[in-house]
TrEMBL record, chain A:
Residues 1-23 form the signal peptide. The active site is at E304. PROSITE patterns: CARBOXYPEPT_ZN_1, PEPTIDASE_M14. This is Carboxypeptidase O-like.
Automatic annotation (TrEMBL), chain B:
The keyword 4Fe-4S does not apply. One of its GO terms (cellular component) is extracellular space. Keywords: Protease inhibitor, Repeat. It comes from the Eukaryota. This is Latexin isoform X2. It holds the Pfam family LXN. Belongs to the protease inhibitor I47 (latexin) family. GO terms for molecular function: metalloendopeptidase inhibitor activity. Residues 3-102, 121-226 form the Cystatin LXN-type domain. InterPro entries: CYSTATIN_LXN, Cystatin_sf, Latexin. It comes from Cottoperca gobio. The lineage of its organism: Eukaryota, Metazoa, Chordata, Craniata, Vertebrata.
Length: 374, 231
């Protein structure tokens, strides 16, 4: 009698283990089957986030931190490992898709997560960073706008959110990257709701912007770095968008930005220009990048990914991989720099950059040539 | 406060002026097999010209996008001041540009347009995924060249234009030796981030190049969907 019960238990345990590892396998399989070199509609991105979390529970968790105007979840993935000494984790923030038509940005956030998931176990430096840092990634902030760009061919170039027209207007949407509480409404904006840089009726009036500010605001003391991903133009923008305001650590922001641009150029030869928005693009206010720097996050950058005008926001799918590879190198360069500054005492940024970046780049090159199936 | 004297080549004043040179070069030399793109600004200088406007002198590198060759050019751009909206005046010298021989390809394409049973037409170049069918690429190139005339005309120190998409392009019948097209293009203006719609009527032939006959800005289509019924 006892033997049979024992056998039954062992068998059940065996089946349970098999089932769990199967669904883990499935989770990994489906993230491997998710084509990172294609653009995905929002439903597929939501599903993918669930799969990544399910397939990598020791690394990935998710959180819904807000609702869009139309009521969709604003979801992030949190990537991090347990700190072996139980030390407090610092925070890196990455958001994509504030502007609906900039499809390469959400594509990059998916790529970024995939790269980390696929390489952290074999990359000692990455593993160490994930023990010290929690990386919060929002693949699509402006879910309503992104969904709208998928509706039909005529909506593809929508930029703003999809909030209702204000009184006396028939025009939808607010430019979320002019709605943040950072010198709101002062420069590079329009108060005409029909314009593409309409900044909304007040700072943080838009639920998407408010969600980011509320969530990051709670972690501001732990947050080292804020990266907001856009297209196009091949630029790395540092704060501030207002021509008369300079960040206190401007020189350092430039140095770290230039190091990132150098790493990006090493990947496929593409040049990225580093500077403030008023220097290399145009003056603007109310951007997420400016808000982050203003509340005290020391490193805050806007990445403007490919290209420089041939396709602009309609970047061909065959460029997704190379664009993401170079953007990943740039983002990692900044994150590693920021990490080493915080956690390795006495390490000068330049030395840290070349050493760390070379290490990461080597691993990347090795895994690319080894034919990592994505 | 406008930057005067030597310009930082990476900053927007020189970059915007250089983009105007790109539009000028495409208007003058562009074809289905020759498309110029601004690659880099090496140096720039700006000065106020009394009673005329503002003149930029630039050293730039331009890339021929189809053959993937690069060439250095010197250029001057004058943004006029004063009454009425006048287009920038551009002078540029890029010696190597015309030396690339694409005559055979152009003649073949011209013959195709002229002898095809039905008139060609296409929509959404590129499509939402950035894709253009290889057969449609010459139409896309022609539209960029034609759009460059508009972008050249419309450019100021406060704009940066690129063609975002061809909404549609239709070949029209002609009695003469030109090939004729009617197209609806979407231009992206970077500083305002607006998408501006233009309708263009243009002709092309290998000897004549692209000639824009008519250009018309279309009204701003807010959502391209009907506003809520307020009746």
């Amino acid at each position: 009698m006892e033997k049979k019960t024992l056998t039954l238990w062992v068998l059940s345990l065996f089946l349970l283990v098999l089932k769990t590892s199967n669904s883990l396998e499935e989770g990994l399989e489906s993230t491997r089957m998710h084509d990172y070199a294609k653009y995905h509609p929002m439903e597929e991105i939501y599903t993918w986030m669930e799969e990544v979390e399910r397939g990598n529970p020791e690394l990935v968790s998710s959180a819904v931190y807000g609702r869009t105007y139309e009521g969709s979840n604003i979801t992030l993935l949190k990537l991090g490992l347990e700190n072996p000494e139980g030390k407090e984790k610092k925070v890196i923030w990455v958001d994509c898709g504030i502007h609906a038509r900039e499809w390469i940005a959400p594509a990059f956030c998916q790529w970024f997560v995939k790269e980390i998931v696929h390489s952290y176990k074999t990359n000692k430096k990455l593993e160490q960073m994930l023990q010290n840092l929690d990386v919060y990634v929002t693949p699509v902030v402006n879910v309503d706008g992104y969904i709208f760009t998928w509706a039909n061919e005529s909506t593809r170039l929508w930029r703003k959110s999809r909030s209702d027209p204000p009184p006396n207007s028939s025009c939808y949407g607010v430019d979320l990257n002019r709605n943040f509480n950072a010198n709101w409404g002062t420069v590079g904006v329009s108060f005409d709701s029909c314009q593409n840089n309409y900044c909304g009726k007040a700072a943080g009036s838009e639920p998407e912007a408010k969600a980011v500010m509320d969530f990051v605001g709670k972690m501001v003391n732990q947050t080292l770095c804020f990266l907001t991903i856009h297209s196009a133009g091949q630029l790395i923008l540092l704060p501030y968008g207002h021509p008369q305001i300079t960040a206190p650590n401007y020189d350092e922001l430039v140095a770290v930005g230039e190091a990132a641009a150098a790493e990006m150029k090493n990947v496929h030869g593409m040049g990225y220009t580093v500077g403030t928005s008023p220097q290399i693009l145009y003056a603007n206010s109310g951007s997420s990048r400016d808000w982050a720097r203003l509340i005290g996050i020391p490193f805050s950058y806007t990445f403007e990914l490919r290209d420089k005008g041939e396709f602009s926001h309609l970047l061909p799918e065959e460029q997704i991989q190379p664009a993401c590879e170079e953007a990943y190198a740039g983002a990692l360069s900044i994150i590693a720099n920021v990490h080493d500054k915080t956690f390795n005492s006495g390490t000068r940024p330049n030395a840290a950059v070349s050493g760390v970046a070379m290490g990461i780049l080597t691993i990347m090159v090795v895994s690319f040539t080894a034919g990592v199936k994505v | 406060m406008m930057a005067t004297g030597e310009l930082n080549p990476n900053h927007y004043p020189a970059q915007r002026a250089a983009k105007v040179v790109q539009h000028y070069l495409n208007t003058r030399y562009g074809s289905p097999y020759r498309l110029l793109g601004l690659q880099r600004v090496h140096s720039g200088n700006a000065e106020d010209v009394e009673d005329s406007g503002r003149k930029y002198q630039l050293e730039i590198s331009v890339q021929e996008m189809i053959g993937n060759t690069t060439e250095k050019c010197s250029a001057e751009v004058l943004f006029p001041r004063g009454e009425g909206q006048r287009s920038p005046q551009v002078q540029a010298s890029c010696e190597q540009l015309l030396k690339v021989n694409n005559t055979a390809q152009e003649e073949a394409l011209y013959k195709l347009f002229k002898t095809n049973q039905s008139l060609l037409s296409a929509q959404n170049l590129p499509d939402s995924y950035g894709h253009i069918e290889p057969d449609m690429k010459p139409l896309w190139h022609l539209s960029i060249v034609a759009s460059s005339a508009v972008m050249l005309n419309e450019s100021t120190e406060n704009t940066l234009y690129n063609m975002a998409q061809v909404a549609n392009i239709t070949q029209l019948a002609t009695e003469n030796d030109q090939v004729k097209f009617d197209c609806h293009v979407l231009l992206h203006e970077m500083v305002s981030q607006e998408i501006i719609h233009w309708k263009l009527l243009f002709t092309w032939s290998p000897p004549e190049g692209v000639k824009v006959l008519q250009m018309e800005q279309l009204p701003h289509c807010h959502d391209c969907e009907k506003p809520p019924n307020t009746n």
